[in-house]
Structure formats: C-alpha cells, structure tokens
Amino acid sequence: MSMSEEKLYDLSQLEAVASGSQEFIDKMVDMFINMSPDLINRIKTGLADQDWEEVRSAAHKMKPSIDMMGISSLTGKIREIEGNAKTQENLEDIPELVNFLETEITQVSIQLKNRN
Amino acid sequence: MAKDFNVFVVEDDEFYGEILEYHLSLNPDITVTKFSTGKEFLQNLDKGPGAVTLDYSLPDMSGEEVLRKIKEYDADIPVVIISGQEDIKTAITLLKDGAYDYIVKDEDTKDRIWNTIRNIREKENLKEEISQLKQQVTQKYDITTSMVGNSPAMKKVFAMVEKAVSSNITVSITGETGTGKEVVAKAIHYNSARAKKPFVAVNITAIPKELIESELFGHEKGSFTGAVSRRIGKFEEAGEGTIFLDEIGEMDINMQSKLLRVLQERELNRVGGNDTVKLKCRVISATHKDMAEEVRKGNFREDLYYRLLGLPINLPPLRERGNDILLLAKHFIDEYAQENDLGKLKLATKAQNKIFKYPWPGNIRELKAVIELSCVMTDSDTIEEEHVTFNSTGSIDTLLQAEMSLEEYKNRIVKHYLDKYNNDVVTVAKKLDIGKSTIYRMLQERVI
Q1: Does some domain include residue A22?
Q2: Residue B106 forms contact with A (CB below 8 Å)
Q3: How many other C-beta atoms lie within 10 A of the C-beta of residue B6?
Q4: Which residue segment(s) compose the domain that A37 sits in?
Q5: Domain total for chain A?
Q6: Which residues span the domain enclosing B103?
Q7: What's the pTM?
Q8: Could you tell me the CA-to-CA distances from B306 to B264, B281, B291, B292, B296 in Å, in that order?
Q9: In a domain, A92, yes or no
Q10: How much is the ipTM here?
C-alpha cells in the first residue's frame, strides 16, 4: 500500500476480540476477503431482479464483517441498503449505494491482502 | 470441577459464527461445535450439548421451531437465542417457551454471551452440587448410620421409625433435650417416599408469639404492619415433604386452635389472604415436655394433642440406655478421627468407666461435645480418664465442686426443681419426696 493511500479499514475491534492471536485475525480477514464477492454478487443479482428480500438478506449477512473490519465508510451505507430493501423505501438510492459498496470492498480487500 | 462444557453454536452467518466460536473457545474448559442449519443441529442433539446459542433466523427453520424441538428432546438444555433485531414480543414468547436468554446481535453480543454461558455453567455446577449434597444427606440419615444403639429401649425406637418410614402417618417424638429428636425426624423423612421433597424444621420457641402464624402459614402483602411482601409459610415451603415442629409443647394456646383447624381441614389460608392452599406435607412434632401432663394442666389442647399424636416415638434418656453410652462414645470418637484425618483413637478402660457412670443430663448432645473435647485433649492414640471432662451446667460434679454447706445445697436443689416445674410446689414436693410445707417454709424464709 502506498503511503499516500488512505487506510480504509481498522482492525482494532478484531484485535480486541482476538486477544493477541494473529492466527485468528488472519483467518477472519481471509474469510472476509473470500465471502465478500459472493455477497456483493447476491446483492447485485437481487437488485437486477428487484428481489428486495435477497438484497436485504445479503446485506444483513455482510453487516457484521464490515463492522468487524472497521470499514467506517461502509458501516452506515450497508445499513441503508438493508433498511431500504426491507422497508422498500428509497429504492432508487440502492444502485448507487451498491456501486460504492463494491468499489470500497474491492479496495479494502487489496489493502488487506497487502497489509504488513 | 473443570470439565469440558460443550456449547453448540447454531449460526448461519459464517463470519459471526466464527467470532462466537473463537470468543467462547478462549475459555479452555469450553469446546464449541458449530452448525449452520437447524436440521444439521437437530441431528446432533444426542451428543449432549451443555448449552446452545441459537440464531433466530436460520435459513431452514424458525427459532421457535428449533427451540421447541430442543425442549421436547431435553427441557434442561439451556438455549440462548441470538437475534438480528430487537423484537420484544418474540423475545417474551421465546422466554416463555423456555429459552434461557434472548440476546440482540450488536457490538456487545459476544460479551453478553460470554456472561450468559458463564452463568449457565455456574448454574449447572450448582445443580450438580445440590444433587450430590442431597445424596450425601440421604446417606447421612440412613437409619443404620444415623442412629446408634443396641439397647432394648432403642430397638423399640427403631421398630417405630421403620413403621413411620413406610407410612404417611403423623409422628410425635418425645424425649429429653439432646436425645436426638431432630435426628429421628430427619431419619424418617430421608428414608421415606418423601425423601426428595423438602424437610422443613421449625422451632416453636425460636419464633416470637406474634409472628408464629405468618411464619407457619405465610402472609399476603400488607396483611399487617411490616408485611411488605407476600411470603409463603413453612407449611407451604414443605410442600409434599415433611414439616418438623420442634418444641410443640411451647405453642401459644391461641395458635394451637389455628394449627388444629389447619390440620383438620388439611388446608390453610395465608395471613390476610383468601386463597386456599392444600396441605400435603407430613407433620412430625417433638417436645421434651410430658404432653399428657400439659393437657391435664390445661396448657395444651386435648384435641390438638390427639391430632398430633399419631405414631408416638419416645426417645429414652442416655442414662437409661446402658451400653449404648459406650457404643455412641466410640461412634463419636471414630467420627471425629475421620473428620480430622486422625488415626484410630482408643478409649482407656478408666475413661470408659467414667463415661459410663456419668448421668448425662444433656444426653447425646452433651456426650458428643465431651467426646470431641477429649479427642482434642489427648496427645496419644488413647483417651485417658483425665481427658474426659464434664462441663454440663446442671451436672452434679459441678455442683459438688462448689463446696457449699448441706443447707445451701438443699436450697439449691429445691430452687432448681421449682424452676424446672414452673413453681409447681405439689409436683416438686412429690419429685423430691418432701412435704409441701417444707417448700412453702423455704419460700417464706426467702432462702430460695
């Protein structure tokens, strides 16, 4: 990661849970990197099919991992996606939110892979 | 105590399940098994989880359904429901259905689960401890180990206890202080079909007269000054077990009629309440008084006396039990030696004689105290005569050590009897085989 690039994640909460186990931290980070593309695909497919329950459920599943990785730019937005899909309100905001989500997750994943 | 405690984590969110597993596994005594569907989990229920954390929204089944299946299988398995959102109504339903706790997924969840699991484990340990203790109590009150004696008087007692054990009859126990009335009551309870139900002992003399009714029958909130909350009484507490009313002879005459009514109707009302509570416990009463005499004197209701009499068991005083004194002494020596990890202790012949000759006014209770003291006093494996010392308040030895004149001794003895028999001059005169006028004269001269 270049020095100028802003760090999009914060592992302090995960480190607190891990109580010093680097192995656990690595495992959770790998899990996040591996499961995120699938979940984003589910959200995108749901969006295309206007299947809001699918969007809601995939967003709901992503929520704890985003919180745990400390991705502050997404903690509010993932809840917005989940909430809008659930109440079926402001649905027109969702495509942009999902776009942002995908870009951020891709970037965070690269940053996480190259950490240390 | 450290024992593997297996927690089943049922969670379809892999990420969350991983965190839970890791967090719980930080405790070395806990092992975690993860399941991502309700079906998979239910198939493994027979592996005996110590506790279950259950994600409320599983892909294949609802939380309610899984909870119901767990409870059907074994109602004792604690289930902690973890839900994505707070829903009070669902939470209440689940808790009513037997869930141990309801936790909402947020940042604090893992700490709350940690605490909940810790509480569950403590509770499980306590449960285990209680069942062990119950077993110990039952063993302790086994008739053959809790009551020692070969004398004819005691053989009669054993026969009566056997009768009491195999029936539901009301039992009344009489005997001097320290003869083991409560031990007999417990032996009856813990060897009867009621053994697993409560044994509740009430000492009538230990409760102030004004409070006895609410102590025995309970009270409703606000039924009298100081009744700040509803309280169940000893009869209700005993449930289907046994209530032991010790020193029944001391019961106030007004209370006697209330007790009589309850025993006759086999039901009671809490003080200030209208609900009727059925009486299901067995009643065992005890007293050191001569109850027939109390009835004659009008201190005890005759109808209540007969209601409580049932199977009467009279415990002989120790001085009338002959060789039992030494049997019991040896029993207490062995008990003390075992409890204090000492080797075998012997009782020297002279010490045996000393114990045998003493009148034991405090009966078995006094014998036990004297024996324990002598076990402490000896420095070898033998208890000698000088290690056996009597300290009982009423003992003749103590009285003799006072070195008073014969006149003074006479006064002391008469005063002692007058105190014992409530200043009943006629009885005292008969007991001491002296004239009534002698006592009246002593009273007049104020020497006693």
Answers
A1: yes
A2: no
A3: 14
A4: 12-113
A5: 1
A6: 5-133
A7: 0.54
A8: 11, 18, 10, 10, 13
A9: yes
A10: 0.78
